[in-house]
Design brief:
Blueprint: H1 3-6, E1 16-20, E2 23-30, H2 38-49, E3 54-59, H3 60-76, E4 81-86, H4 95-107, E5 115-120, H5 122-134, E6 141-145, H6 148-154, E7 159-164, E8 167-174, E9 179-182, H7 192-209, H8 211-219, H9 227-246, H10 254-257, H11 263-272, H12 279-296, H13 302-314, H14 326-340, E10 347-351, E11 354-357, H15 363-374
Parallel strand pairs: 2-9, 3-4, 3-5, 5-6, 6-9
Antiparallel strand pairs: 1-2, 7-8, 10-11
Helix pairs in contact: 2-3, 4-5, 5-6, 6-7, 6-9, 7-8, 7-9, 7-12, 11-12, 11-14, 12-13, 12-15
Bound molecules: nicotinamide-adenine-dinucleotide.
């Protein structure tokens, strides 16, 4: 498909300009060392939006490493700003966490033109997106993702959400950002487990839509990507996701549904562990179960099934549920069906670059797939 038909600018260099139905244009900047020139980019954005001031919502875990550079950039724009620390951890992505952020916006006299700037991982990106969608019926916001997972996934697509009543992303909204600033160098302060966690979402999007990216991940699996190769991988993953979203920015059709690969089972698993398992790790398990189920139902070859499982193994991602999680995860899948008002719409990988959506998985097939995975050497 050509970039123009998809509403995406030239994807080889420069900001990725996104055109989506009922959505303004916005730029996703992806550049190693981008934060060094964030002041200029922000100044242009603030002028364009007519924003008089900025509120920085920052994850406390990211703050200790990166808040200084980002506040310096905002300071250089000459705009007044306030910093709202958001305690690290999924529990801040909650009604209480949302209320805290909304009240902080109000107490800082944030107006409809103020820019909310989120700095941190997927948690704070999701929270800020939700807050920006509803505060004064919608204010502009921009994201500076600091985890691999947020850079390739959570910060891309304008989807905000918070968890409630034990269900992931039960509340939320679509609200597209004014800009996204991705500096892969910011992920350099993450523990290795968090990098691998983010790479699970890269594997996901490669499996759905980018055979070259999948092959590149296979070739470089001997060590974790850094520097230019990490930037290249992050950029390719963002482009692949934006291509899927360009025609379906509000997740109404099958294209975007494909992005749920690994999530129908991963989300309930993650919730059932009380978020002790990281999001990408849970998605890796969901992808592995989907791949085995696809093979058992004749949709994928044994060779492709093994290729997928091998890549997850190579990045040291989990591929099966602990036995005690089998039942609570299955029960959580019932909640997903209820929220969706119908079947799971389980995404099945056939071969790298090609997945399809099936209706659902029954209990016997779920158990069979888990038994196969448990029996792997
Ligand atoms: N909106 C979407 O489309 C979408 C897509 C995928 C995931 N998500 C959501 O994203 C969330 C997970 O995101 P995440 O994996 O980034 O987790 P996270 O935001 O909780 O961050 C993980 C940890 O890393 C710390 N951290 C962040 N940046 C750091 C840095 N540069 N250096 C050191 N530590 C740093 C944080 O303090 C936190 O402890 C989940 O809530 C998930 O539902 C949303």
């Amino acid at each position: 498909m050509s970039s123009s038909r998809l509403g995406l600018s030239d994807v080889s260099s420069g900001p990725l300009l996104v055109t989506a139905h009922r959505v303004d244009h916005y730029a996703v900047h992806v550049e190693e060392g981008l934060v060094a020139r964030l002041a200029g980019l922000l100044a242009g954005l603030l002028d364009h939006l007519g924003s008089p001031d900025v509120v920085i919502a920052v994850d406390t875990g990211a703050a200790e490493h990166h808040l200084g550079a980002v506040t310096a950039a905002v300071l250089a724009t000459g705009r007044p700003f306030h910093v709202v620390p958001v305690p690290a951890g999924e529990t801040s992505k909650s009604p209480q966490g949302l209320d805290n952020l909304l009240r902080a916006l109000h107490s800082h006299q944030t107006s409809r033109r103020s820019l909310l700037l989120a700095l941190g991982g997927g948690m704070v990106c999701d929270l800020a997106t939700t807050a920006a969608a509803i505060y004064m019926r919608g204010i502009p916001y921009a994201l500076v993702p600091t985890t691999v997972l947020a850079a390739v996934d959570a910060a891309i697509g304008g989807k905000g959400g918070i968890d409630d009543a034990g269900a992931k992303n039960l509340l939320g909204a679509f609200h597209h950002p004014a800009a996204v600033f991705v500096d892969p160098q910011l992920t350099g302060t993450l523990p290795e487990r968090q990098i691998r966690n983010g790479l699970a979402e890269v594997i996901k999007v490669a499996l759905i839509a980018d055979t070259d990216l999948f092959a590149s991940l296979e070739r470089h699996a001997d060590r974790l990507p850094t520097g230019a190769s990490l930037t290249q991988i992050i950029r390719a993953a963002i482009v692949a996701k934006l291509r899927l979203l360009a025609e379906d920015p509000f997740e109404q059709g099958d294209l975007r549904r494909l992005l749920n690969l690994g999530h129908c089972i991963g989300h309930p698993y993650e919730a059932a562990t009380g978020y002790q398992v990281l999001h990408g790790e849970a998605v890796a398990v969901g992808m592995a179960i989907a791949a085995v189920h696809a093979h058992l139902t004749g949709r994928t070859s044994l060779a492709d099934r093994d290729r997928i499982l091998r890549l997850l193994d190579a990045y040291r991602l989990p591929t099966t549920l602990p036995e005690q999680m089998r039942e609570p995860t299955w029960e959580g899948m019932a909640t997903v069906r209820r929220v969706r008002g119908g079947p799971l719409h389980l995404v099945l990988p056939h071969t790298p670059g090609h997945c399809t959506v099936t209706d659902d998985i029954d209990r016997a097939s779920y158990d069979k797939a888990l038994s196969e995975l448990a029996a792997r050497p």
